[in-house]
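Sorry to interrupt, but I need a hand with the structure work. Please put the record directly below this note.
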Amino acid sequence: MNKAQAQNSSLFLSKEGVWKFDGVEITHARTLEVLRKNLHRCEEGIYVQIGREQSWVEVEDTIYFVSSVDGTPENGFQLTLSDKTQEDLNPSSLRYKPERLVCRVKEGTEEARFLRGPYHDILQHLIEDDMGYSLQIKGEKIHLLHYPVPFPDLDKRS
């Protein structure tokens, strides 16, 4: 299969971590678990392989999602990913855009998007200062959103 075939795939993974087959949401727990644990990436795209069978997956955003967060800003956070693996959060890998918080996982090779619950669990610890918003995790300050730099007042030029 190639990328064009992947775009015509029957499997779809949304930016919210919702799996669909032919446009219908997959809700069967065991099926979801098998799909999440058998995702692979190659140069041609993303696919699921179960035994000798494989199928390309059209992916809207990331292939991994943070499904839960445990810990504290002082001691750090442990993430549970959509494939049920657990990893310590690397604070310096956090990136924020409105409605999108991601971090690097799988030894830095993949990006994981925070689902709504973990997104709010982490962002409840935001600190606002004169530069914008940041998190302080294990003593490390992580800037997530900077205030825009004001333009100089052109009317006050000499």
In short: The longest strand covers residues 64-72. The chain has two domains: 3-59, 64-143.
